[in-house]
Design goal:
Radius of gyration: 19 Å
Helix content: 10-25%
Order of helices and strands: EEHEEEEEHEEEE
Number of strands: 11
Number of domains: 1
CATH superfamily: Uncharacterised protein PF07273 family, DUF1439
Strand order of the largest sheet: 3-4-5-6-7-8
Length: 171
């Protein structure tokens, strides 16, 4: 994480923001994969190869993952990809920037999966929630949020084209 410009209103040695890169977010998300779960005893889901994209126009982070589903209800396993996007929020107890309220933006399945679109979408939604809801993408060290006995905390979180900017404000 790089230190932002020095604060003009806080204290000259405390940055008024931190910025972390898309690569840092990619590294944090990558630790969750591969992901394998049985969903509702009907589907086996394997998610791999996450690719993080920043969506500054929506102030969200997107994660596209390769998906492989098997089920006794389907003749053949199906493969494809899900794109999940999420807001970011600060979780004070853990001092972490977390993914909040992930939603499935798209499901692209190959082959005969179209017949199972409703089930695949439901499995994607469950997997997204279980996998990424409240997942920390950056955790602040205590000394990053305290200086000279004054406590600070993250404020506004803004998605940029090349990273994520977290404003630091006095608590």
């Amino acid at each position: 994480m790089s230190l932002g410009a020095c604060a003009s209103g806080i204290f000259p040695f405390i940055p008024d923001h931190y910025t972390f890169s898309q690569q840092q977010v990619q590294g944090a998300v990558q630790r969750k994969f591969p992901y394998h779960r049985s969903a509702q005893q009907l589907f086996d889901v394997t998610l791999t190869n996450p690719v993080v994209t920043l969506l500054p126009d929506r102030n969200r982070v997107a994660v596209r993952v390769d998906a492989h589903l098997e089920s006794p209800l389907m003749q053949d396993p199906v493969s494809g990809a899900f794109t999940i996007s999420s807001e970011l929020a600060y979780d004070a107890p853990s001092r972490s920037v977390i993914l909040r309220s992930p939603t499935v933006d798209s499901v692209d399945m190959a082959g005969s999966a179209a017949v199972y679109a409703q089930q695949v979408n439901a499995v994607a939604a469950v997997a997204a929630t279980q996998l990424l809801a409240n997942y920390p993408i950056y955790t602040f060290k205590p000394d990053q949020l305290q200086f000279a006995g004054v406590n600070y905390e993250p404020g506004t979180i803004t998605i940029l084209t090349n990273g994520i900017r977290v404003q630091i404000v006095e608590k």
